[in-house]
Specification:
The chain is 33% helix and 8% strand. It has helices at 13-22, 27-39, 76-79, 87-98, 137-146, and strands spanning 57-58, 64-68, 119-123. The chain is globular and about 40 Å long.
C-alpha cells in the first residue's frame, strides 16, 4: 500500500499502522533502516531485523499517550515495536509495569506477549534516523502525512 495513493484517511489504528509499516516516502530514512537491518550490530547478528517504519503500539482506547522522537537503529528498528529492545525500554517498561500500564516489566520483541493497558505508544518519526540524529524538517513532514 502506497500512502501517497490513499484517497481517504485510515479509520482505525490498525489501518494507520498498516499505512505506517508500508511507507516509503522518505528514501534517505528507508535506505538507512534497511542498511542497518542488513549489516546489524555484532550483538544482534542472529536477529532478523524489522527494518521498516515502526508502528504504534498499545491499547487503542487509551487515555495516556507516550510520544517518542524516533526509533532507535538497533532497538525499535530491530524489534519493530517502540522502546523495545534498547536502553530506553529497559528503563520505561519496568516503570509502566509497576504503574499498571504494562503486562510485564521486560520488552524484548514484538512477540514477547507485552500488552499495554490504557496506554498508547508512538513516535513523531517512524524510521530510525542516521547517526541517531533528529529528522530534518522534510522527513518530519513526510511522516506527518502518513499518520
Amino acid at each position: 500500500m502506497n500512502p501517497a495513493s490513499v484517497s481517504s484517511p485510515p479509520v482505525t489504528l490498525d489501518e494507520l499502522n498498516a499505512l505506517v509499516t508500508a511507507c516509503n516516502r522518505c528514501t534517505r530514512l528507508r535506505e538507512h533502516c534497511c542498511n542497518v537491518a542488513a549489516v546489524r550490530r555484532k550483538a544482534y547478528a542472529d536477529w532478523e531485523y524489522w527494518g521498516r517504519p515502526v508502528p504504534s503500539f498499545g491499547d487503542s482506547m487509551a487515555r495516556v499517550l507516550i510520544l517518542g522522537l524516533a526509533p532507535g537503529a538497533h532497538g525499535s528498528n530491530r524489534t519493530g515495536r517502540p522502546f523495545t529492545g534498547d536502553g530506553s525500554g529497559d528503563f520505561l517498561f519496568p516503570v509502566l509495569h509497576e504503574a499498571g500500564f504494562a503486562s510485564q516489566a521486560n520488552a524484548t520483541s514484538r512477540n514477547d506477549g507485552m500488552e499495554l493497558h490504557d496506554l498508547w505508544i508512538t513516535a513523531v518519526a517512524r524510521c530510525a534516523p542516521p547517526g541517531n540524529k533528529t529528522h530534518n524538517r522534510r522527513a518530519s513532514q513526510l511522516c506527518a502525512v502518513v499518520g
